[in-house]
Amino acid sequence: MEYHELTLHVFKIKQADVDLYLTVMRASDLLRYAQIDRWDESNPLGYQRPLLERRVAKAVDYLLFEDKIFPTSVLVNIRRKVDFFPINEIGRVGEYGILRIPENSLPFWIVDGQHRLMAIALAAREKPEYENYPVAVTILSLPDRYSEMRIFYVVNSRQKSVPTALAQRHLKLTVFEKGLDEIRRFETKRRVMAAIATYIVDYLRNDPESPWFKRILLPNEQRRGHLISQTSFADSIGIMLMKLPPEDFDTNKLDESLIKTALLLKDYWNSLKDLFPEAFEIPEDYTIQKTVGCYVFHLLFPHVYLLLKRIKDFSKDSIKKILAKTFENFTKATGIEMDSEFWNRWTGDPLATGTGMKTVRKLANLLIDSIPLDL
């Protein structure tokens, strides 16, 4: 896309040492210079959600047949240099002047307002006068994508709905940029750990030797053969991470801790695959790779880990032996056979087909109580 230098009449204000430029633009001009930084697997540092067609359609109807007013501003960011030339002060709150945006500083990156802009574009196909629709615009000049993403995260996760899976991605980037101590000041520990867990999600999802290869639904992705959403999978792993010994999951060495845990979880789930082959062969017909199974086995994992640590053997063979003995003890204690059919969606045991966390915790606790004292 070829851009040309822009000059805009703006009001400049400052909030928390950040300059904001308030202006108005014709819809066609704003659309010409705007781009959207959407998250997908090929753009993992992106942050925007996909357009929701129903939301856009409602906004188009609103413009064509109802009140026709979008009073709130579209928020954009320019990642490179801009020049402001003041003309007049506005009391003590800001200045009026000219904002010069060089062509190599463009485009505008849409932080908030993509649905409104698309609605205006579609309305203009019906009524060309909408090309001249005046759009209130707030312009930021933040230097990088990360700073831009943080504004998007705050605006959307705290003031209106943003998909949880995408919010997890935003928060993960923030953790690695700012550090855990800083993030814990304004986010719950569970949300932070779920965000961190997306690293493990990606590892398990992208490894062809993992039972989770291409089976986890990512943000902005259409459901095609996926077994569980990133949101649930990451949340269950996040809970698991909080239960690991602090000295073994060292948040001061986060990269190292995540890699080690991801490798162990791969062996853990492959051990389960060996023990329940039918359930993993046609996973759609069983709950072991659905929300129930994920939460149950991620609640069990820290206890398996402690035994592995005690015997000083973290091999897959030891993991498999511990799990086999656990299931054997479970069957002896409850009279319920723990095999693939236990996890059948339609004919399996109620402990494996229930959907509530109360059932999940009950099954997890029964398995925890069945872990052998030693091998």
Descriptive notes:
- It is a single chain.
- The protein has 375 residues and is an alpha/beta fold.
- The protein folds into 2 domains: 6-159, no CATH class; 164-370, no CATH class.
- Helices cover 49% and strands 15% of the residues.
- The chain contains 14 helices and 10 strands.
- It has helices at 27-33, 53-65, 114-126, 145-159, 164-178, 180-183, 189-206, 230-243, 254-275, 277-281, 291-311, 316-334, 350-353, 357-370, and strands at 6-15, 18-26, 34-35, 74-77, 83-90, 94-101, 108-112, 134-140, 216-217, 228-229.
- An 8-stranded mixed sheet has the order 3-7-4-8-2-1-6-5. A two-stranded parallel ribbon has the order 9-10.
- Helix 7 (189-206) packs across helix 9 and helix 11 (291-311) packs parallel to helix 14 (357-370).
- It starts with 5 loop residues before the first strand and ends in a 5-residue tail after the last helix.
- 34% of the residues are buried.
